[in-house]
Structures are given as C-alpha cells and as structure tokens.
Queue: 2 jobs
Job 1
Amino acid sequence: MDNLAVGMVGYGFIGRVHTISYLNLPFFYKPLPLKLKMSGVCSYPLSDANAAMDQAGFEYATDDYMDLIKDPDIDIIEVCTPNHIHKDIIINAIQAGKHVNIEKPLAMDINEAKEILEAANNAPKSVVQMCFEYRYSPAIMRAKQLIEEGLLGRVYSVRTVYLHAGNSDPKRPSYWKIQKKYCGGGSLYDLASHVIDLVRFLLGDFKRVFSRLETFIKERPDAADSRKTCVVDVDDLALLLFELENGAIGTLEATKVATGANDEVRIEIHGEKGAVGFNSMQPNFLQVYDTRDPEAPIGGMRGFKAIETVQRYPEPAAAFPGPKFSIGWLRYHAGNAYDFIENILYGKKPQADIMSGYRVQEVIEAAGISALKEKWVDLPL
Ligand SMILES: NC(=O)c1ccc[n+]([C@@H]2O[C@H](COP(=O)([O-])OP(=O)(O)OC[C@H]3O[C@@H](n4cnc5c(N)ncnc54)[C@H](O)[C@@H]3O)[C@@H](O)[C@H]2O)c1
C-alpha cells in the first residue's frame, strides 16, 4: 500500500474541514487504497497550529508554510488560507513537486490565476485540484448524469442563489473576508465561486455576463480595536445575469446579508423536456421533472419528483454509515479528498482541475468589470 503525507496550510474553518475529511476517508472508502499521514500543519499564531497537533494528530506544527513545502516527506499541500496568499503557496508547492488541493477562489484576480495556471501546466506530474465540494453531492452527481442522458433537452434557463446571513449584522467586527487586500472580493468571490463552478459543471461554459455589486454595510467595528472602524471595500451582494455557450440564460444571486438564511445553495434548471432542482438545505433529494411522464388522467404521474440520492455514492464508497442516512456538507468534502488522492494514486486528471479554477476566476473577473462599466462582458476574457 502506498503512503501519502499531508501538509495542511491554514487550520482555520476550512483547514479543519479538510482535516476531518482525511481522517475519515478510511471509513467512507473501504478499502482505502493508500495510507494517509497527517504530517505538518501551518497556522497563525503558532499556538493554533500546536493545538491542531493535539486535535488531529499532526506530527509537527509551524507558522511558516515554506517549512511544509520544503519537507521532502510531504506529498500533498492543502491550500486553506485567506485568498491573498493562495498564489505564493500554490506556485511554491508546485515547483517543489507537491500535489496541491486548493480552496476556492483560486486567486485574487485573473492575472494571478494565469500565473498559477502556467505553473501547473509546467508541472504535469503534480495533481493540482480545486476544492469545489458541491460536485460531490450525490444529488448534483445524479443531476449531471440525467442532464448528460438528455433529460432536459434544450436548456432554456438556470436560476441560482447562494445565501448566507453572516454579515447581516452591521455590528459584526471586521475580518479578512470584508477587506479586498486579503480576499479579492466579497460574496462574488466567496459564494458565487461555488455556484459558477456548479453551472459550468452541469451546463458548460459562460459566454457573457452582466453584474451589479452592492455594499450595504460600508464600515464595521475594527476587530483589533472596537473604538475604531474598518472600511468594507467588497460587495455584500452580487447579482449576475449570464448567458452560457449552450444558449441558456441564467441568474445568480450571492449574498452574505440574506437575513434568515443559513447556508443555502440553490440551482434550478429548466429545459424543453424537463427540469432539475437542488437545494443544499434539502440535500437528500434531487428535484426532477420530466415532460415524458403521462399527465392524464387528472395529472397522471406528471410533476416534480424527489429522487432519493441521500448517501448513494457509487463504488468504491463504502456503505458507511449506510446509503439511507441523511447526507451533510462535510461528506462532500470527503468526496473531494478521496477524488484527489485517487487522482494522485492512479495518475488521473482531476475533473475539478486548475482550468476549472481559472474559468471560475474569469467569470468573477468579468462580473467585476461589468459592475464597474455597467455593461455586458464577453467570455473568455
Ligand atoms: N469550500 C468551501 O466551502 C469553503 C468554505 C470556507 C472557506 N473556504 C476557503 O478557504 C480558505 C480559508 O478560509 P477560512 O474560512 O478557513 O479562513 P479562516 O480565517 O477560518 O482560516 C484561515 C487560516 O489560514 C491561516 N493563515 C493566515 N495567514 C497565513 C499565512 N500567511 N501563512 C499560513 N497560514 C495563514 C490562519 O492562521 C488560519 O488558520 C479561503 O480561500 C476560503 O475562500 C472554502
């Protein structure tokens, strides 16, 4: 059995999620074709990284990510830091011959994304993969199969949202996701990136985009000193109108001031012959409508059906805890982690490859330009 050693760069919210995924892979995928070792972890301050050793069994801790990248025993670098340092971590890791699993969004802007793409293209032996975890929701996987089998026929329209309420309270203190120099952009970068990827995954590339970005809360208490305020220079709300290469027209609303929302991704696609709908708050079912179902007598069997995708992952996912137990968001991340290590082991090209990250970045960039110039922007840029 092969071994792979993991170096976790960033151990905040998503670094923990990626760690939970690796630790749980032997339960979800049986037999796991290799052994994983949680080698080094990097976080700020060092005390956080030290705590990660206790919590997850990492062998050592550091506050300098280059320690992990230079470690010849580490095979995998996980990029789980704020966006402004993605590029440096990714390029250094690729050049050191590591495999790299990258949190979205890929980069701060399209120029950085180009540099990363180039570095990845020059290192064909490294598996460089994006973490777009919604691709590993069984409901989304089933939607993709049905669309490829022609359920929808010609696709007319797609309606998408990503709703959070985390920034609704103006008293929430500043953090890196409201400062452009650390995040690149607001809901457009943080939330819309997921949805743009899902639309591409299910329906193909974007052709053009029109966007309106709005910042409702223009300053927040400074987290470092509550007597001061911090300027919010990114969007709270991103509204996009878009057209796809396949002719479909769509809308995307991504916002962190959707008071009352939890973590709600919705994608609803209408075609000539059918429709599909996914809502991350009801993740066990894919909504499917098929015009080929008889509509008589009295409605026949016609109507939206809730397909019970639950935890029905295809082989080799182990039936643990069982295909009928309700699914959750963490499980999608395990799907991404498994896909990543399988790609490394068998030398496969990732489906969520670096080009997927680049294409999403391109749509984000186009939306930014559109909001500024108040006009449609054509893709690719
Ligand atoms: N896929 C998803 O669903 C999802 C969800 C949340 C966040 N994310 C992405 O994950 C990334 C991290 O977001 P988060 O919410 O975990 O942030 P976070 O603030 O919770 O954690 C960031 C971590 O990075 C560390 N860090 C900061 N600067 C560093 C540096 N110079 N060197 C090394 N480590 C450093 C911090 O100490 C912390 O451990 C972002 O790119 C974000 O967009 C993805």
Job 2
Amino acid sequence: MSAAAAQPGFVNAHTHLYSGLAPFGLPQPPSPPPDFPAILRTLWWRLDRALDEGTLRASARYYVAHALLSGTTGLVDHHESPAFIEGSLDVLADACDALGMRALLCYGASERNGGREEARRGLAECRRFLRARQRALVRGAVGLHASFTVSDETLAEAGALCRELGAIIHIHMAEDRVDVDDARARGYAGPLERLEDAGALVPGSILAHGVHLDEVQVRRASSAGAWLVHNPRSNDNNRVGWARALAASARVALGTDGCPSVAGEELAALEAGAAREGQAGQGLEARAGRGRELLAESFGQGALEGDVITKEGARVVGVDVGGRPVVREGRLLTGDLAAIDADAREAATRLFQRMRELPPS
Ligand SMILES: [Zn+2]
C-alpha cells in the first residue's frame, strides 16, 4: 500500500443495508413517535415494507460504497424486505462483492407481517443463501428479527437450521423493554432465556443491543459463545437506554445499526455515553476493534489480514479488502461513485413515495 502505515479496517458488527437511503430524508410520521414500538411501526417497518429489488440494490450500493470510503472493510448485515424476500440476500451480496466489502449476511425472519408463513420464507432465504455460498468475500447467517416478533416454533426452526448448516444466529436482543416484557408474557425469564430454551443460542451467535440484559445474562451469553453488539448512536436515537451490562463481557463489538458506517462517529457516541453513564475509563472503546474477531469466526482466523486502511490525518485515503485495492487517494476504485449516488437519490424518491402510500401496519 502507500507510504502511510496500514492499519486494520473497521468491521461494523451490526447494520442494515436496507436503510442506506435514509440520509436522503425519510418521510417522518405526522407526530413524533412516543416510544420504540411506534418508531418501528411508523419509520423502519414502513421503510422495509416499501423496498423492492431496485430500491434495495441502490440502497445497498450507496451504503457499501460510502462505508468503504469511510474505512469500513467488513460488515454484519441484518436484512428485512417483506415484499421482496426470495433473492434479497443475493442483491446485498452482489453489492458487497462488486464493490469489495467483506460481509456476513442474513434475512431476519419475522412473523410481524405475514405470520408463520412469512417466517418460513425468511428462514428459507437464509438456507438458500447459506447453501449457495458463491462469493469469496460474503458468508451467510441465520437471521431472526427479534424474540418479540417470532413464535417458539420459528425459534426452534432457526436453531435447527443453524445446526444443520453449521451457521450462527443474528438477532436483535433486548433492544427495548418491549422485547423483555414480551418474553416474560410468554412465560420466560427474558428473550435470552427464550432463545436458550428453543435451542437457538448457538455458539458464535450475534445478539444486537442487549440494552435490557443484566450482567448475569451478559456473562451467560458470553460463556455460551455469543457476541453482543453495542450500537450507541442508534440506542440514543431510539431512546431505548444505555447498554450498561455489556461491560461484563469482552465479547462485545461495535455496530452502527443502519447509521452511516463511520467508526469515528460511533466511537464518539460510545465515549460520550460512557462519560455520561459513569463508565468512562473501563476500556469500552476496545469494542471498535472486536468486530474483526467476530467476523474472523465466520471467515477463518487470519482471513482478515488483507483488510487494511491508510489514513492522512483523520481522512481515509486507502482501503484494501482481502488484498484487493478498493480505495486509493480517497477515491473508490471498484465502482462509479457519482452513478451510485445518482441512482440512490432517484431510488430514494421512489422508495419514499411508496412509503407514503402504504397502509398503516
Ligand atoms: Zn438493528
């Protein structure tokens, strides 16, 4: 690489390529959503229902291109597009593969729109993608949206699929109180225990958030071989709370949960939160580097050695992924950035119009 010393690239351990067009001005609900379930219903679950193949492709290419330019060399995506399930992971994989992003992809199965049939289709998409394994830079996982939007049967099927294919689970875990309350109403101590009971807490699994887990639960998840992913900007934006108990484990990585993949911005939110919550000086910023360990569990130890960046001051000027030059002199080599941006702007207009036209969920 160039004269400046190469350093490890950032691995974004939990994000959503489907929200890549949000920076173009997501249509806002008529009044501010009062709580997390309302934020999901009026914003993110409207966005995912409005996605089709074309808007998803534009969203993924825009997100991935800018993530690479910001020094992200790998990402763990959690995908949902209920009107376009079959083949959706190929759209994301093609975007990552073409632009040179290492990625671990899953479809987040859920019953929130179409019941068990919807969940079966989501898991089938994971199965299809995991078995095809067509691209050197891309791997698959089994996805579940969250405990509170799936039945015991879907949880058990997801666990069985992991064992059959040697895969891991990627799921939102205790992001908001609603996930804990739901699991308790179903007779479990919490969503983590519900996952365990269903045989779906397979080693290596990725639990996004864990805001409402306690230290005992965090340690138990950790000793079961699971990862937790802290997403401080998203947690602030959604006002779900501070993920205090994550400090009880070293198996915690950093994710941006759909926010632009800029490590420095996520780290700033982490440091501000740690200072505000009395957890400064506890080494939480080490989470920014742990995504590489998380991703290496899917790609093999040493597989990420060629995923490096170079900087001039704070600016990322060079990016290599798997030894392939992706960015030089701050410019993307693997795609036409102006065309990607123009496609994204045009797709955002279509997507936002579809969102406005959707009936309430
Ligand atoms: Zn998420």
